[in-house]
Amino acid sequence: MLRSPRRRQLLRAATHGTVLTLIGTLPRLAQAAQVVAVRVWPAADYTRVTLEHDNELSFSHMIVKDPHRLVVDIEGLQLNDAVRNLVSKITPNDPYIAQVRVGQNRPKVVRLVFDLKEEIKPQVFALQPVGEYKHRLVLDLYPSTPKDSLLALLQENKLDPAPKTGPGSTPLAPATSVEGANPATRPTPRTERAPSPGDEELILRNNRLITIALDPGHGGEDPGAIGQAGSYEKHVVLSIAQRLKRHIEQESQIRVMLTRDADYFVPLHVRVQKARRVQADLFVSLHADAFIKPDARGSSVFALSEQGATSTAARWLANKENAADLIGGVNINTRDAQLAKVLLDLSTTAQINDSLKLGKAVLREISGINRLHKNDVEQAGFAVLKAPDIPSILIETAFISNPEEEAKLNDEEYQERMARAILIGIKRYFAKNPPLARNKLAAL
């Protein structure tokens, strides 16, 4: 078939353009990736190793036994000081890694060999750039036999019994305002009230132990909000959670578990899973708020909403908190889609109603510690509050983006008072809403 001169011109131009495009991309494709940072997050749950790099790369891994080792080959990578620095990042208290060896296995292929303390089930995956992070290669080293959360909680309470409250014990002091706060912003001082009858009724009316899941937000790769003075939300809320845990352990009929007890990342759905595995009666997630304006201030309490957020700020905050999985780094290939759907779709009206009651009780108490950002419990679609069978609240203890409140969040006295106020709120909730008996827990 004869071709017109015009058709031949178009074909020639198209072919020329394709060649130019390919030539233009060759230098970028040929450029080896450079590791810019390595981080190691050891924890009892799992150890995470992160290699942050400036370009995409390929990788493979294998498990070798006798002795146990994890071997990772990274293609398109040249050995540099950042990679070598991984060796010094392994600490003696790492529960899974004894040591790591790095080397240039062959041109543009770096090999990492992790000598292991026990058999593991690794997850190795890549993350695209997000937030302040470039590309990341993530190695999650899980124990081959995951620990039973409920059994661990029972053993902790059996082997390390906490002092009991009762006649002769020192009562928990009511919440009061923080001394030295700005008088212009401090809430009107309230008269310290004596413990209400509800505190005693908590002991008398319960027919079983109450289990509370405390959830310090963020952790590991996800620092949360960062204050102007450099405070990390993940550190502040872990400290408050640990103080609250110690106070709860003084109660004779309440036991407590932390979704994380150190600086490591826990995906949002795993936090909910942990609470459900120990059959928690309450789920309390602790955070330190941030906003685009440094003058935002005050404490808040949130519950789940199935009908949209109660304010624009609540919606903005929920979206920010729900992005924690992107920053922290979730291996989407292993997420249980069916479970995720359950957590997203089956939250019930009863759970939300109970969460609002709990939130109001806690909000009342923390109003004596810090001014409130909102006087009522707000609602939004927080993913971490979506356990369908556990009353759940999220507490923003203060705005870490506000320099004055950032200083409060780092003050031990403020942390102590906040922890005590939350516990009093929880006790007042249970005084009016005693938990039902659970046959499984009774059998255990």
From TrEMBL:
It is found in: Periplasm. Pfam families: Amidase_3, AMIN. Its EC number is 3.5.1.28. Keywords: Cell wall biogenesis/degradation, Hydrolase, Periplasm, Signal. InterPro entries: AMIN_dom (IPR021731), MurNAc-LAA_cat (IPR002508), N-acetylmuramoyl_amidase_3 (IPR050695), TAT_signal (IPR006311). GO terms for cellular component: outer membrane-bounded periplasmic space. This is N-acetylmuramoyl-L-alanine amidase AmiC. It comes from Parvibium lacunae.
